[in-house]
Structure formats: C-alpha cells, structure tokens
Design a protein that fits this description.
The protein folds into two domains: 35 residues; 106 residues, no CATH class. Helices cover 58% and strands 26% of the residues. The protein has a four-stranded antiparallel β-sheet with strand order 1-2-3-4. The protein starts with a helix and ends with a helix.
Length: 190
C-alpha cells in the first residue's frame, strides 16, 4: 500500500519536472525570438535617428510634422485593416545566417483575419548579386483555426509546399470574410 502512494507521488513529481523543463524551453525560445534586430541594425538606427534629430532641431515645426505623419500612418493602417480584415498581433525575426551575399532569417508571424486566427513560420533566404536581390521563402509552416474543414487543410498544405505567401493572404482574406458572414448568419438562426 505504501509503495503505491510513493509511486503516485513520484509520478506527479516527474510530471511536474517535465512541465518545468517544457516551460523553461518555451521561455528560452521566447527570449531568443524577442531579439528582433542585430546590434549592427540598432546602431545604424540610432545614428540615423541622431542625424534626423540634429537636422530637425533647426526647425521648430518638427514635432507637429511628426504628429501629422503618425496620424496619417494610423489612418492608413486602420483603413488597410478594415479593407483586408488582417490584424497582425506579433512578429519576430531571427537572423540564422549572414554572409556577404546571403542572408537567412527565420520569421514568426501571428494574427487574425476577421475571426480566424493564424500563425506563420518561415525562413527567408535573401541572395544578393551585383545587380539584383532575390528572395525565396523556405520551410513555410502555417497553423490555422479552421476546425475540421478539409478543403482549408488541403489549401494550407499546397501553400506550404509552394511557399507562396501572397496566395495564402489573398485566399485567407476572401475565405475569412465569407466564413464570418456564414458564422453571423448561423448565429442569427440559433
């Protein structure tokens, strides 16, 4: 009898240790992903900002111009969100490899399109030659709240194979809009 009680406690301890290990890994991943920019990019941004503020300190209308630009950008963003239905909630970028001509970045993006949530994870390979820059999306992974809709699952699989994000966003926007109409209609009849 005592061995059974000890075994139950040991099983519970092992389960808790496993949960702690998983949460620790998740925390480390989040910490690693939260670094959006490299030190070089941060320094470039600081220098550019300092140059801008030095140039603007000569003029007195700079803060009102910035406020007007910010309001204009917020208006544009609001319009685009209403038009497309997309609302991005998070984005992270991690540089995996950077050489003179080649850059590989891992992106994670999550958001909603109308009432459908989605998450994307992909690698962006950027190749730079003397005359042009070419980019390729690899390792695309899409997670969606589509329920048991097999057609959506087939579509997501095809998009993942081809790595075509433009097609995904176009089709998701249309599908999510009609999904929202159907959902409202069925709620009306309940």
């Amino acid at each position: 009898m005592d061995n059974n009680i000890y075994q139950v406690y040991e099983d519970e301890i092992q389960a808790l240790e496993e949960e702690i290990r998983l949460l620790t890994e998740k925390y480390e991943d989040i910490q690693q992903e939260s670094t959006f920019f490299s030190e070089e990019e941060i320094l470039k941004s600081i220098k550019a900002f300092q140059r801008e503020t030095e140039g603007e300190s000569k003029g007195h209308d700079s803060s009102s111009d910035l406020k007007a630009q910010l309001e204009s950008l917020e208006t544009d963003l609001s319009f685009l969100m209403k038009l497309t239905g997309f609302q991005f909630t998070s984005h992270s970028r991690k540089t995996l490899e950077k050489t003179g001509e080649r850059t590989v970045q891992k992106h994670r993006l999550s958001g909603k399109c109308y009432s459908l949530s989605f998450q994307l994870e992909f690698q962006l390979l950027e190749m730079q030659s003397k005359e042009k820059v070419s980019t390729v999306i690899t390792d695309l992974s899409i997670i969606m709240e589509s329920g048991e809709d097999s057609e959506v699952n087939k579509f997501v699989s095809r998009v993942e194979e081809r790595g075509n994000l433009v097609t995904f966003f176009r089709c998701l926007s249309t599908y999510a809009e009609w999904y929202e109409h159907r959902r409202r209609t069925f709620l009306h009849f309940k």
